[in-house]
Amino acid sequence: MSITAIIIDDERLARKELRSLLDQHRKIEIIDEAVNADEALQKIHEKRPNLIFLDIQMPGKSGFDLLEQLDYVPEVIFTTAYDEYALKAFAVNALDYLLKPIEDDRLRDSIDKVSEKLDKEEPNISDDGVLTENDQVFVKDGEKCWFITLKDVRYFESVGNYVKVHFDSNRPMILKSLNNLEKKLDSKTFFRANRKHIINLRWIQKSETWFNGGLLVTVKGEETIEISRRQAAKLKDMMSL
Fold first, then answer.
1. What is the Cα–Cα distance from 20 to 18, expressed in whole angstroms?
2. CA within 20 to 30 Å of 223's CA: 29, 40, 49, 233, which one?
């Protein structure tokens, strides 16, 4: 498969050098370039590439700042002249980290990693900006960062002005409203259970009748969430309960 990519780097010569190296790799199709985080944000939103080559240290917003602003997050290969960022890059589960000047052997290894990962994933069918279960998001909570595939999220929980993301054993908090998050998520997978929870339907283990016509569902991990009476009717219709 062809892998669409955007190069994001404030240095013109660095972009030119990387593009020249990538010309030797037929799997990669460079569809655009960006010189800063704001320009990259717009182009990623419009073109939804499979991959970005992302410089970390740029004037204004850094590569990490860009990732925090993205809804849809492609695969990421960091490119930088500063190896001090390597540990942090891998802490956020970046696919790879290339130190400038980039060596062709290391670039080839990175491209192979991208190709292998994308080949294993089902293609997203949404082209309207809605996030599907196979999409990846970037979450930062304090000094900790994660790349999360949405299918791994059990549920989202509203806590004041924040949303707590429940995946694996982690519970990071993001500054978003549950209402805005609901608009961005694929309703075939993510269901608004009540005013405080959006649940991933794939993680429901069982359900039982609850008070006032509602439902009590158990998600994997034995966590229970109450479904309001109005939403319970919608859920029964969706799942033919």
1. 5
2. 233
Q: CATH assignment of 152-239?
A: 2.40.50.1020
Residue type, 33: E
Give the model confidence (pLDDT) of 58-72 as tens digits.
999 999 899 989 988
Instruction: Determine whether 80 is exposed, middle or buried from the number of CB atoms within 10 Å of its CB (0-12, 13-18, 19+).
Output: buried
Q: Provide the 3-class DSSP secondary structure of residue 229.
A: helix
Q: Please, which residues bridge with residue 140 across strands?
A: 145
Q: Which two tokens stand for residue 155?
A: 């549920």
Q: Single out the residue of 109, 115, 108, 114 nearest to residue 94, CA to CA.
A: 114
Structure tokens at 109: 């290894």
The pTM of the full predicted model, rounded to 2 decimals, is 0.80
Q: What residue spans define the domains of the chain?
A: 3-120, 152-239
CA-CA-CA-CA torsion for 149, 9, 128, 124, nearest 10 degrees? -40
- What is the CATH topology of the domain spanning 3-120? Rossmann fold (3.40.50)
pLDDT (tens digit, 9 = 90+) per residue, 131-143? 999 888 888 888 7
Say which residues have a Cβ less than 8 Å from residue 138's Cβ, sequence separation at least 6.
67, 68, 70, 73, 92, 145, 146, 147, 148
- Please tell me the total number of residues recorded for the chain in this structure: 241
